[in-house]
Amino acid sequence: MKGKKLRVCFLASSNGGNFKFFHLSIKQNLIKNIELFLISNKDCKAKEYAIKNNIWYKQIKYERNYNNELLENLNEINPDFIITTWSKIIDEETVKKYNGKLINLHYSLLPAFAGQTNLNPIKSAIERNCQYLGVTCHFVDEDVDTGKIISQSILKNNLSFDEIVNEIFKKGCLILLNSVIILSKRNDIIEICNNDKWDYAPNLFFNDNLFKENFWNELSTL
């Protein structure tokens, strides 16, 4: 399937690592036919990156009981998908309007450690001596971390904390991209192939070796 560029909007309030992953992938011609947008709810590194790289962005005020600016800007963008990488619970009106388009990453194998944010699910899993850690890409619904799961990736708990965080970030980026491919049913975003590996479910639709170590090293400096 081919067509116009897929419009992907990130909601960000921090560094914007997943946002930067998508942009660097586009810049290096690893992925195609995706147009990025950014909405932030405060000054942050993701906003600075968008400005520096001439990516459409808006900074807005947002609370669950004040969604006017968010809805106005989403209406202007008309996104195919909205990646919610800010630590905000999305209001019911927005969730209903963009049902099936709102996607979130959570750094655990949901439903384990639902409701925890940032790196806290990883810390909790390590404290509980979980033998496997992971990351989940799921739809956003009216509750917290309860939306239908799209994809997951798993990691053995046999690394240092910093190594675990780094690996889970990478896996999160890859399953987020994979989820966009799955949901959009587009075959013109990345070179499609069968990549049957034990630690991804469903299988990746692309070769993860496309993202070489120098790519991840460059991403870490952005």
Descriptive account of the structure:
The protein has 222 residues and is of the alpha/beta class. The protein has helices at residues 17-27, 45-52, 68-77, 92-97, 120-127, 161-184, 213-221, and strands at residues 6-12, 34-40, 56-59, 81-84, 102-106, 132-139, 149-156, 200-201. An 8-stranded mixed sheet has the order 3-2-1-4-5-6-7-8, with helices on both faces. Helix 1 crosses helix 6. The longest helix has 24 residues, at 161-184.
Report the total helices.
7
Mean pLDDT rating: 95
Percent strand equals 15-25%
The main pleated sheet reads as: 8 strands, mixed
- Overall geometry: globular
Instruction: Write down the Rg.
Output: 17 Å
Q: What class, by secondary structure content?
A: alpha/beta
Task: Return residue spans where pLDDT drops below 50 for at least 5 consecutive residues.
Answer: none
How many β-strand stretches?
Answer: 8
Question: What's the gist of this structure?
Answer:
With 222 residues, this protein is of the alpha/beta class. Helices cover 34% and strands 20% of the residues.
